[in-house]
Design brief:
By secondary structure, this protein is of the alpha/beta class. Helices cover 45% and strands 18% of the residues. It has two domains: 1-30; 33-293, 3-Layer(aba) Sandwich (Rossmann fold). It has an eight-stranded mixed β-sheet, sandwiched between helices. Strand 5 (153-158), helix 6 and strand 6 form a beta-alpha-beta unit. Helix 4 (88-97) crosses helix 11. The longest helix is centred in the N-terminal third of the chain and has 26 residues, at 3-28.
């Protein structure tokens, strides 16, 4: 073989080998984007509401639509909590690049401005849950390339946001394919607990109002009274640390779901009520909701 031809073949082989070696590195280098100071105007709450959003690595180039995860922060944080302390960008990028999670959009709303919490106020003058379903979700589905279908929509959150995840999925099982409450606040465990909690700041509430609020915000009550046809409407992933101060409510909900034969996954891991625990939970959440987005 002529020397020039031989050299040409060897150079081509070397270049091919280099491309093969670099391809995984190029894939690993792909990164999503997070915007953590976005806002929309809310007529229901009569204010601008902030939110953060994670867009997957190929969002700007693919042109396709994506499933969506609504990821709720805990008490004392805002829409930046999962961004700053939860490392949502780094963790989600790794999960997608490793094939553990499907590319998805993650929306992180602020529930700590004006008043704290994801629910409608018992007096009806601050209706955050109405804002979430009537304004935030439609806004996201109009502005971003989101698959606007139950099959491709999931919800998760920690602590106060875990309570929001529970209640939102129980109130609207037609909206979510999966729900992942982490270290969740499960609401009052009894009607007496509800009365004590609500009358502390609203001393003149009628018993009928307290009872109605308990029936619609106690996760334990709602699980115990769930209609048969809703038992498999949502895939549940419940995760709580063995040193978490909210363990009782989560364990009682798990037991109620077992007795009611409501399918769910329940995890108790070593850990407490902190970001170390929730950062470790997030990859499991991303994998679980990805299974829901696919044909499991």
């Amino acid at each position: 073989m002529d020397k020039p031809i031989y050299l040409s073949i060897m150079i081509k082989k070397a270049l091919y080998a280099l491309v093969v070696m670099l391809c995984p590195l190029m894939l690993m280098a792909q990164t999503g984007k997070v915007y953590d100071n976005l806002s929309l105007s809310s007529k229901i709450l009569k204010s601008d509401r902030k939110f953060a959003i994670y867009l997957p690595p190929d969002y700007e180039t693919s042109g396709r639509s994506y499933p969506v995860l609504y990821l709720l922060h805990g008490s004392g944080d805002d829409q930046t909590g999962w961004v700053q302390f939860g490392e949502v960008l780094n963790i989600t990028d790794k999960a997608i690049n490793a094939g553990m999670a499907t590319p998805m959009i993650i929306v992180m709303p602020d529930a700590n401005t004006g008043r704290r919490g994801y629910f409608n106020d018992v007096k009806g003058d601050w209706n955050y849950e109405d804002f979430f379903f009537k304004e935030l979700v439609p806004y996201v589905e109009k502005k971003y390339r989101v698959k606007a279908d139950k099959h491709y929509r999931a919800i998760a959150g920690l602590s106060m946001g875990g309570g929001g995840s529970f209640v939102y999925a129980l109130h609207h099982p037609e909206m979510f394919s999966a729900a992942c409450p982490l270290s969740a606040s499960t609401g009052p465990l009894s009607l007496e607990d509800a009365k004590t909690q609500l009358t502390r700041s609203n001393p003149n509430l009628p018993d009928s109002v307290i009872t109605k609020y308990y029936n619609t915000h106690s996760v334990l009550y709602m699980m115990n009274t769930m209609p048969e046809e809703q038992k498999k409407a949502v895939r549940w992933f419940i995760d709580d640390g063995d040193d978490d101060f909210l363990y009782e409510g989560n364990c009682m909900v798990h037991i109620a779901m077992r007795k009611k034969e409501i399918p769910h996954e329940f995890r108790i891991r070593d850990g407490a009520h902190n970001w170390t625990y929730w950062r470790a939970s997030l990859p499991n959440v991303l994998e679980f909701v990805s299974q829901s987005f696919h044909q499991y």
